[in-house]
Amino acid sequence: MWMRKGQEQAEMTKRAWGHNGRGRSVEELLAARLAGEPLPREAAYRLMELEGDELLELFRAAAALRTQGRGTVVTFSRKVFIPLTNLCRDKCAYCTFARPPSDPKAHTMTPDEVLAVARRGREHGCKEALFSLGDKPELVHARAREDLARLGYATTFDYLLAMSRLVLEETGLLPHINAGILSAEQMAALRPVSASMGLMLESVSERLLRPGEAHYGCPDKVPAVRLRMVREAGELRIPFTTGILIGIGETPAERVDALFAIAELQAEYGHIQEVIIQNFRAKPDIRFRHRAEPSALDMMRTIAVARLILGGEMNIQAPPNLTPDAYGMYLLAGINDWGGVSPVTRDHINPEAPWPHLQELAATTRAFGFRLRERLAIYPEFAARPEFVDPTLRQRIADMMCLCEDFT
Ligand code: SF4
Questions:
Q1: What tens digit of pLDDT does each residue of 184-201 get?
Q2: CA of 86 to the centre of ligand 1 (A)
Q3: In testing the pocket of ligand 1, which one of 135, 199, 248, 285 has its CB within 8 Å of the most ligand atoms?
Q4: What's 192's domain CATH number?
Q5: Number of structural domains the chain divides into
Q6: Residues 292 and 242 placed together within one structural domain of the fold
Q7: I want to staple 247 with a disulfide (CB 3.0 to 4.6 A). Which of 81, 130, 280, 346 is the partner?
Q8: Burial call 370-408: b when 16+ CB within 10 Å, e when fewer
């Protein structure tokens, strides 16, 4: 029965590609991609629907393309997480990080708290300070304005800039900035005090801004605004992290559209150093608490299609802590990076999901035939290109690269 369904699916797919996939079968299309042809968007839509044997073919092709471009080394960054403020002006339906001002857990870190976390990270061999925070809370929350005034700053951005500089100068950790929407001027100001920056595109679906959807009440989640920031980071030659969040109400075709939007910006500017495929996790205290989470298989399918769209050279990352029982399987679908892993701080975005111990991560990576290697917040191929590294950081980054650990 299952086989017949698989065969019927294969026939349907072949017929569909006769119209919009240059008349090729799945096998022919995957072979053409491995031979260097780009993937047509219509074909990517169809790949998101594969099942059975053809799905396995998709995984094999994506894994082969990854190995063509990135070999068998899988990387991670040893980091500390600095949640500078968990106040935010947006109201994403899946967010457990942001807190309303009245919540006893609402907090803006003091400089002493920031330094204490960064110093603890340094003692544990961390090299990245991930600044992750709510988006411009002072525009809507008096509490945020009061916190900032007490600290001596007018805006969250001003405070972020000062704390990035402080951490860099006092601890040597390399800041990676993940602060929501920033203007080109703000990114330019942060460039000398950070190794890289990031903004999850999440989705290009305007539909998700409607009432009841994931991004209702979120002015910073308008896709055009996010695409503008990714573009401006390219113009500024900032090594950049972006990605998609799956399971927040988007369709499979919208996932493909988001990946193509990323691929188009990468083709124009070449500054995207990694693309994250992140799965929604339901939590008891969020608006989407009853939403189904994407399965590991859905993650694998999306990772594989992302690999075929973005090519063998792109660093593709999936967070291991959000699929603790099965994350090793993502290696079979074409990832080559685990992202930031902290031996010190918990994942404040998904506090219920502890990061795996590094030895466990190394063992899982090895079990799938790969080798785990530490990297910095800036990938080695970007660190080697002077236009992507601010002159003030060059020596520091070169020195720190020598300290990255290889797990054999
Ligand atoms: S996901 Fe980010 S932008 Fe959305 S509410 Fe949470 S902190 Fe704010």
A1: 999 999 999 999 999 999
A2: 9
A3: 135
A4: 3.20.20.70
A5: 2
A6: yes
A7: 280
A8: bebbbbbbbbeebbeeeebbbeebeeebeebbeebeebe
